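Holo prediction — pyridoxal-5'-phosphate.
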Amino acid sequence: MIDIQRIRKETRGCKNILHLNNAGSSLTSAPVQDYLNNYLNKDAELGGYETADLYKADLDNFYLAAAKAVNGKPSEIAFIENATRAWDMVFYAFDWKPGDILLTSVTDYNSNMVAYIHAKERFGMDFIAIPNDEYGQLDVEALEKAITSDVKLIAISHIPTNSGLVNPIEQVGIIAKKHNIPFLLDACQSVGQMPIDVKKIGCDMLSTTGRKYIRGPRGTGFLWVSENWVEKLNPPFLDNHAAPWVTPDSYEILPNAKRFENWERYFGGQAALGIALDYMMDVGAENIWQRIQFLASRLRDGLSNIDGVTLWDPGQQKCGLVTFTKENVNASKAKLKLRENHVHVSASGTQLTRPEQREAGITETIRASVHYYNTEEEIDHFINVMRNFTTD
Ligand SMILES: Cc1ncc(COP(=O)(O)O)c(C=O)c1O
């Protein structure tokens, strides 16, 4: 079980704020923040290259920690500055041609949708956004029915950015394997929120970010690519780290996931992300997931008893992102008003990915996203605040 008092002592932000914006960016723990600050101070005192040499073991530890966090191998990990770019490095590594099809879901992340449209315009490929089933989650039967010999990639967001839905991705993995189609998982909101095992899920590539549920620094993220796929994928750009220049007119591309990396990067962030991943695994992914579900369901129950509140989280399995609207409450204004009172939520845009909200004329919801360091008292306080809350 989690020692919440210890965790909160080690989370300085918990002293003064009620942070329910963990799906945006969570609070780093003191050990991670102190580590990062020390690293950056050393950069200033010693110089960046010398500091990186000094911290080599920790920079290497990042690969071990990231691999352990998703049950992959260190050679399958690339450090990348955010989830979008990590995802891009794989998506654009496919040799898209006219007639190729990509299958995704209607709830996929908005930047991924932009990339599909971009690739459609540039390469003449096409994509199909599979609709949701009666529970509001990806319809896996429809996904399987859409498979043809033209389907080159399945790309699904595990948890969308703007709801508490958890897509049934293990079923997607089974379908992808059965039809021998690679499966790219956007796990930006799920790594650090629940146990992630790429073998159980059956995905071939996974992207995620540091600052959300992992509680790492901003400007960090990583990519996992199965060793079965690494050497088949040609990154959209290369540098002398990803592909050392060996003769005047040739290079040797790395045989591991580092082929997707930049040479220059946020070194302190990489080492600190490794520390954050270790911290997360010490707390325990299953413990974290149990607690998040407990707190989120307490929050949903409480909000559902307030007049004028509508909850918007679809799916059979729900997570720590709680999205809702309230009559006479504008989500953007609510975010700012709550912030003045040290309560942090975000206003989550419908972003074209929530057909049911568009039909209801809803353009944004309040997204209150819990993490394991939140307490029952905080949840109850937030419910009480919302009871008489208005932005009129
Ligand atoms: C589902 C999902 N995918 C991708 C991203 C993008 O992550 P990043 O901002 O680290 O690129 C987000 C961010 O909110 C997200 O929620």
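READOUT: Residues 82-84, 109, 157, 160-161, 186, 188-189, 209, 221 surround pyridoxal-5'-phosphate (CB under 6 Å).
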